[in-house]
Design brief:
788 residues, five-stranded parallel β-sheet, 37% helix, 25 helices, eight-stranded mixed β-sheet, alpha/beta, 26 strands, 14% strand
């Protein structure tokens, strides 16, 4: 095909998709514009984002051309996700919608009527990219995540190219700005490539964009400084923008092939300079140029729905009528004997083979692309029976050993990675470096440790970038972990929301199959952020995520290392979920054998018989590792002071938004009385905010008996034990609360209650005086040993 034939085909293709996008936004009938428009043809509510649609269509057509030319698999991610009518128009034309929805969206005029009538209609099609649409791996409702997700998708998919269209407004967000740095991490030897295309149409919803007011020279300097090779396409230049774009796409592909060929031949490619296309086209390109003297095309006024009064205003209706007529859509297709649409030969020349259509890219659907992990044997890693209860050990070190062995066992599958915001060592996961390295494509100095081109650990100081990469990695069928400081996990809370929405919305979509879970590990927990101070003390992520669908979110708070191993294995076996594991990295007492930890994980709630009495007078519960240590210490004190009082200890290691324990446990509501008794007082010591637990037990008829302890937003630079003191979760506070419950129930008298409370308060005063004088916790607390 000659260049002129290609350009003719591209222009027809974009004409067709521009028409379909416009019709979706405006029309409820006469959607093929076979007669002049009438007011009654217009939808009662006009919703959508027209301004970005022409750019999306222009790029989609050029991606199709490259697929046809190279016969290589592509994903197409759209950052300006609210330009969905353009995405849907292309999915229809390539046949993907009719493939997955043959009954509702057949490949004929009825199918076009369906997508037009239902776009942004009640219970119809959303205004942004979504899981119901084929080929999409990004929910698309929030800006900033497209580039990082694309980088994650190409990891360990060496033949894949992810073309990602980035809006110039989107590029102003923090997550997107950090995503450019992924070129420091992704090796061209064993991974695919990302082709970013920045759509510089100049405007956001009501004003100019930063890039829109930059010169070509400024843009080139910025992206060269970021380590890319910028290629400018500009509709204001003399050369036809369609010709410019085909050249830019061909040059980009040639550069990608050259980089990958060098790396895969064994050459050390330092600082691979990937291409980026900087594409200037007018916002609202090919739409209505102006309205009553107000500039529309090439201005922020075209961001959403232009000529938006056409349901009643004659002038607006005429403008829309002329606009739709300008595309001459009826000239671009015919109807065959089977009543199917047949686009003209030029358009057909750009339609990829069905299996290579972006909407049919199998990596976007889960299912057969998911390869389960070969799991390490927990018996080889756990603290064994020879470890006495209460002997100290490390949860995060054990998790690191599990990950090390998992990397080894899955070395050939290349389906496991850690996405770590520069915290692998800090979070005590360093055992992984016995098997793999940190990936780094920039120069590696002789003194740098555990760094290589093809490491399985990705580290960079951007939670946004790495969480987005984890998103792209898991939804395309692989397994990953995101370990981070608990206090900074809130940085990606909104990204986690979007991930959960994507997974939840995927549940009812017949062609989407289960994908591996997204596993967030919260370490550097608030109880041991004693040296960092108040800024590092924040359990908000747990509380925020425990508002989400219980089928999608589980929070695991293992009490010790063996429990951490069990929940790590569980998290990686889960599908279609976001799991949170909160585990401390400091030395703590070990409580359960591996078999006991497995038994507890079945329900997520268990009475620890070894620490409990029959027929209890009071119940003490712990949820979290540090707070469990304080619970056990308080039991020792209470039994010394009140040897005849009977106490039950309950360990809670799983939470969902519908309550304590696993979904299996929650399905048996009577178990709450069996575990917490039907009438005894309960003191509940929780790792995070007390209100989180208050909400989870609100519907339990015995919730009035609960005294819930937790982080009260009190912090400072202090000693580890004093962190619990400041928030009322220390062993002394727990003894005070249990004594009060016992007094309320008449188990002890007022004299005993006052004596115990006075004793504990004095111990708290003595402790504060001690740490002010010595700077450390007393030996009896620092090296406390549990005894029954």
């Amino acid at each position: 095909m000659s260049q002129q034939q290609e350009i003719t085909a591209l222009k027809k293709f974009v004409r067709a998709t521009n028409f379909l996008a416009t019709s979706q936004i405006y029309l409820k009938q006469n959607v093929l514009h076979k007669r002049p428009l009438e007011h009654s043809d217009i939808k009662p509510r006009l919703l959508g984002h027209w301004g970005t649609c022409p750019g999306i269509n222009f790029v989609y057509a050029n991606v199709n051309r490259l697929i046809k030319k190279t016969n290589r698999p592509f994903l197409y991610l759209v950052g300006p996700g609210h330009g969905f009518p353009a995405v849907q128009a292309n999915l229809f034309m390539e046949g993907s919608l009719s493939h997955f929805y043959p009954e509702t969206i057949p490949y004929n005029e009825t199918g076009i009527e369906d997508i037009c009538k239902k776009f942004s209609a009640a219970y119809g099609y959303p205004s942004h990219a979504n899981p119901e649409a084929p080929g999409q791996i990004l929910e698309g409702g929030e800006l900033g995540y497209s580039l990082s997700v694309a980088w994650g998708a190409v990891l360990d998919n060496p033949n894949l190219i992810a073309t990602v269209l980035i809006g110039d407004g989107e590029s102003e967000t923090g997550p997107l700005a950090a995503s450019w740095y992924a070129n420091r991490l992704v090796s061209p030897a064993n991974n695919g490539a990302v082709l970013p295309i920045v759509h510089i149409n100049g405007y956001k919803i009501s004003g100019p964009t930063r890039m829109g007011r930059m010169s070509h020279e400024e843009l080139e300097l910025e992206f060269k400084g970021l380590g890319y090779h910028p290629i400018i396409v500009d509709s204001d230049l003399e050369e036809d923008v369609y010709v410019q774009m085909t050249k830019a796409m061909d040059e980009s592909y040639a550069m990608i092939e050259a980089i990958q060929t060098k790396a895969r031949s064994g050459e050390d490619v330092v600082k691979p300079r990937w291409p980026v296309i900087l594409m200037r086209t007018a916002k609202g390109w090919t739409g209505v140029a102006e309205d009553n003297g107000k500039k529309l095309e090439g201005n922020c006024e075209s961001h959403q729905v232009i000529v938006n009064k056409c349901a009643k205003d004659k002038q607006h209706l005429e403008a829309l009528d002329q606009w739709l007529a300008s595309y001459k859509f009826g000239e671009l297709y015919s109807i065959n004997e089977q009543n199917q649409i047949v686009f003209d030969k030029d358009i057909q020349s750009l339609l990829p083979p069905k299996e290579l259509c972006c909407g049919r890219q199998h990596l976007s659907y889960g299912g057969e692309v998911v390869r389960s992990l070969n799991n390490p044997k927990l018996e080889d890693l756990a603290y064994g029976a020879e470890t006495p209860r209460g002997q100290r050990g490390y949860s995060m070190l054990k998790m690191g050993q599990w990950m090390r062995d998992a990397f080894k066992l899955n070395r050939d599958q290349r389906n496991l990675r850690i996405f770590s915001p520069d915290e692998t060592y800090s979070n005590q996961l360093q055992a992984v470096f016995e098997e793999t390295d940190r990936a780094w494509q920039w120069p590696i100095e002789s003194w740098d440790e555990d760094m290589s081109r093809d490491g399985r650990v990705l580290e960079l100081l951007s939670e946004n970038l790495l969480f987005g990469m984890l998103h792209g990695y898991t939804v395309t069928g692989r397994h990953g972990m995101f370990p981070t400081y608990e206090s900074f996990s809130q940085v990606v809370s909104s990204m986690a929301d979007q991930y959960c929405k994507y997974v939840y919305a995927s549940q009812g979509v017949h062609f989407r199959k289960p994908v591996p879970s997204c596993n967030v590990v919260l370490s550097s927990l608030l109880e041991r952020q004693d040296h960092n101070g108040y800024s590092h003390q924040n359990p908000s992520f747990l509380g925020a995520m425990l508002e989400k669908h219980p089928e999608i979110i589980s929070a695991y708070l293992p009490a010790d290392a063996n429990s951490t191993l069990v929940y790590t294995e569980r998290a990686f076996a889960d599908r279609d979920k976001l799991n949170i594991i909160a585990a401390g990295k400091k030395e703590l007492p070990q409580w359960l054998t591996l078999d006991e930890a497995r038994q507890q994980a079945k329900d997520g709630v268990m009475v620890w018989d070894f620490a409990s009495d029959d027929n209890p007078d009071v119940v003490l519960a712990g949820c979290g590792d540090y707070v469990t240590q304080e619970c056990m210490a308080s039991l020792v004190i209470l039994r010394e002071l009140l040897p005849r009082v009977r106490v039950r200890f309950v360990s809670v290691t799983e939470l969902t938004s519908s309550g304590l324990g696993s979904r299996k446990f929650q399905s048996k509501p009577w178990m709450m009385d069996e575990i917490f008794t039907a009438d005894k007082g309960v003191v509940f010591n929780y790792h995070g905010y007390p209100n989180t637990i208050k909400k989870l037990v609100f519907d339990y008829k015995g919730s009035h008996r609960f005294r819930i302890k937790g982080y009260e937003e009190e912090g400072s630079t202090t000693t580890p034990f004093d962190m619990g003191v400041r928030n009322g979760t220390s062993r002394y506070h727990l003894v005070i609360d249990m004594a009060y419950k016992l007094f309320q129930q008449g188990v002890i008298d007022e004299t005993q209650h006052v004596a115990i409370t006075t004793d504990m308060l004095q111990r708290l005063v003595d402790h504060r005086n001690y740490i002010k004088a010595n700077g450390v916790d007393p030996e009896s607390i620092e090296n406390w040993v549990w005894t029954r």
